[in-house]
Amino acid sequence: MRLSKAVVLLSGGLDSTTVAAVAIADGREVTALSFRYGQRHTRELGSAAAVAQYYGIDHVVIDLDLRSFRSALTREDMEVPLDRPGDLGGEIPVTYVPARNIVFLSIAAGLCESLGAESIYIGANAVDYSGYPDCRPEFFEAYERMINVGTKTGVEGRPIRIMTPILHSSKADIVRLGKRLGAPLHLTWSCYNGGERACGRCDSCRLRLKGFEESGYRDEIDYE
To answer: Are 211 and 14 in contact (CB under 8 A)?
Structure first.
């Protein structure tokens, strides 16, 4: 029986790696899609490659230059916030990259059409996240409608589905799911800063550490 094909947006982080494990468990023939978009470091791309190799799946890396987009993740003249006080899901932080998920999903949709894939899996999360507007359910519902009136497959009655399996999960639940599915979480990288060890102080590190602590599992990556 032919497996249905899926494109998984794989950043190399905890969430996207868990979602790759979900797609494989769903019986999909997975192609991983990553981006070299001018981010502050490419440490995460090494993790994405390691995860793809672990699963033995095809890995497509697209080069984009989003350094003109104003974000602390793409601009050297902006600092990544450390030890940010209060609710990390409140004010949208400077690590938000304008329209990043719109750009990434558009390319993923094009790759789906090229491969004959039926779905895009993305590790977006609307519970334990940093307040990004493109991680909300209403965004994905609207975007799925849009790509299916603007693609050949959509107008021919073969719509592309956007799969968000961890959208309503806490970070602890994501860790538990990844562990249950045997995802290689030890290969992942979540820190907004590069280096040999994660900083443990940026929003992404803090959310990750909180998730592991609440899940009852030990995070196997190294921190400063």
So the answer is: yes
